[in-house]
């Protein structure tokens, strides 16, 4: 990858794992395009970049949950002659709670962001990379996408899509010299749980005590992409759990998760609150 000529575009770069992708890739010499909704947060990340090309990095605010956003972002890059050699599709949100009765507008916005924009960005920038015969795409899926996950039903399904889509795209682009990798994090210490509407203290405590840092997870993703791995689960414990779950019939992991989460969220907490 020629780090001087091309940009690395990171979606969801204003916080969490995306911010760590930005900091680490900048330190490795990448010239960045930082994408997220809030310009001020993106600029705050840009100010923390340290690499040789930090000054050439720029922010493009964009709400990727809006239909057509991926096309507009790609068109803006084209209009400004910003060639993207590495696409990091990291932006994503979760929705926690029973699937029956979930607000239509929230599900729609999540699917637009996690599924439609990710696919369209891969399609648009992937075609550019294919023409050049080089490039790399890193899509952020989730451990939750490996199995049907009660209370994260639609979120986990979007992440199953991300893995399946990434593997298919990888096969299609293999002969063109474009690499595609899918990163599957488990729990990560970011704003994700809060943004997904999770308020239950027992859940938050469990998530926190089983989480990796955003910096650790970003490093796993960068290493996997550099090695052109098809997919990787972040963290030894998550890898073990993924291997174990893969041995079970497809209906079993969701039943296990349902009983586990039911017990967890209804466990009395020190504050006496439950979901
Ligand atoms: N944290 C976890 O436990 C965990 C586990 C597995 C997978 N993941 C995946 O990891 C990825 C990053 O999540 P995170 O944990 O870093 O979450 P986070 O801290 O909430 O960060 C999410 C990022 O996405 C951006 N974003 C949200 N909505 C957007 C929109 N409509 N358009 C453009 N950008 C948007 C946010 O920026 P703005 O608010 O400025 O738009 C922010 O930069 C997601 O794909 C998530 O599904 C996370």
Description:
The protein is of the alpha/beta class. It has one domain: Rossmann fold (3-Layer(aba) Sandwich). The chain is 48% helix and 15% strand. It contains ten helices and nine strands. It has helices spanning 16-27, 39-46, 69-79, 104-132, 153-173, 192-195, 201-209, 214-226, 236-246, 252-265; strands at residues 7-11, 31-36, 58-61, 84-89, 135-140, 178-184, 188-189, 212-213, 231-233. The strands form two sheets. A seven-stranded parallel beta sheet has the order 3-2-1-4-5-6-9, sandwiched between helices. A two-stranded parallel ribbon has the order 7-8. Helix 1 (16-27) packs across helix 8 (214-226), helix 3 (69-79) packs parallel to helix 4 and helix 4 packs parallel to helix 5 (153-173). It is globular. Mean pLDDT is 95; it is low at 270-275. The structure holds NADP nicotinamide-adenine-dinucleotide phosphate. NADP nicotinamide-adenine-dinucleotide phosphate (NAP) binds next to helix 1 and helix 6.
Q: Enter the CATH topology name.
A: Rossmann fold
> How much is the radius of gyration in Å?
19 Å
Order of helices and strands: EHEHEHEHEHEEHHEHEHH
Proportion of helical residues: 40-55%
- The N- and C-terminal alpha carbons lie at a distance of 47 Å
Strand content: 5-15%
Structural class, by secondary structure, is alpha/beta
Please tally the β strands and state the result.
9
State the domain count.
1
- The shape, in one word, is globular
Number of helices: 10
């Amino acid at each position: 990858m020629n780090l001087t000529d091309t940009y690395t575009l990171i979606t969801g770069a204003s916080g969490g794992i995306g911010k760590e992708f930005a900091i680490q890739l900048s330190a490795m010499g990448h010239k960045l395009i930082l994408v997220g909704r809030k310009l001020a947060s993106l600029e705050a990340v840009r100010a923390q970049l340290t690499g040789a090309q930090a000054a050439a990095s720029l922010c493009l605010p964009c709400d990727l949950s809006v239909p057509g956003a991926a096309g507009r972002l790609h068109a803006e890059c084209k209009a400004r002659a910003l060639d993207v050699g590495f696409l990091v599709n990291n932006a994503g949100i979760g929705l926690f709670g029973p699937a029956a009765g979930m607000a239509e507008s929230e599900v729609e916005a999540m699917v637009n962001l996690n599924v439609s924009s990710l696919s369209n960005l891969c399609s648009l920038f992937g075609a550019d990379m294919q023409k050049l015969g080089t490039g790399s795409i890193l899509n952020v899926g989730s451990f939750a996408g490996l199995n049907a996950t009660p209370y994260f039903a639609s979120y986990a399904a979007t992440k199953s899509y991300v893995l399946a889509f990434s593997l298919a795209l990888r096969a299609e682009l293999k002969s063109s010299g474009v690499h595609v990798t899918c990163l599957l994090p488990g729990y990560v210490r970011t704003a994700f749980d809060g943004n997904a509407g999770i308020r239950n203290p027992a859940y938050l405590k469990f998530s926190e005590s089983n989480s990796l840092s955003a910096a650790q997870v970003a490093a796993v993703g960068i290493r996997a992409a550099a090695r052109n791995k098809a997919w990787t689960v972040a963290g030894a414990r998550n890898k073990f759990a993924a291997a174990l779950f893969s041995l079970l019939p497809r209906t079993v992991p969701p039943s296990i998760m349902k009983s586990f989460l039911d017990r967890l969220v209804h466990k009395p907490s020190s504050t006496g609150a439950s979901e």
